[in-house]
Amino acid sequence: VGASTERMAGLKAGDYFQDFVGPLGQPSEFVKEDLEEVKKRRYLFVAGGVGSAPVYPQVKWMKEHGIDVDVIEGSKTKDLLILEDELKAVAGNLYITTDDGSLGEKGNVISVLSRVLSDEKIDMVQTCGPHKMMEAVAETSLKADVFCEVSLEERMACGVKACVGCSIKTLDGMKKVCHDGPVFDSKIIVDVNPKENTGCSCGN
User: Fold this and answer.
1) H-state helical runs in the chain
2) Average pLDDT, integer, range 153-180
3) Which SS3 state, helix, strand or coil, does residue 88 take?
4) What is the pTM assigned to this prediction?
5) Where are the strands (E) in the chain, listed by range?
């Protein structure tokens, strides 16, 4: 709709941008760690809606490095589910949930997450999707004493922490999703202490 978008749409194979800045933001913790240490842990990814898009390349990378990862993928209906076949090809176990029961288990991802956390030894949960879903995933994980990371999505005007448009309130003060995130330790986003439950501050 804008001049820059029109110019990008007109690019052909072999064309390039004069300048490009990246990567921006902070990745998941396991990216920074020794691969052999990562292999010792049991990971579980929880994806909702378009949150499956950033989850897929991470799970694919783990499979390529010999790490078995389970995935819970949820959607309102099977018609809105994305990357099911791709995730099935790289996940150890893929659990599908739909609100209307049109595919997989009827309901949301939390019932499956609770069951997996009670039946298996999970060391780390990572989630990306709707804010309310991530809040529930974080609470469920923390109650099970399992470390959880959330990947937030906010409107980002600049992407370089200048405009503060993607600022969120956390227990550690204000953070910018584009620079300090998008991946955060859920403990600073959600306080599950019933007496001091601040809820999820994922931009709400």
Assistant:
1) 3-9, 35-39, 52-64, 84-90, 109-119, 131-143, 177-180
2) 87
3) helix
4) 0.81
5) 43-48, 69-75, 94-98, 105-106, 124-128, 147-151, 167-170, 173-176, 183-185
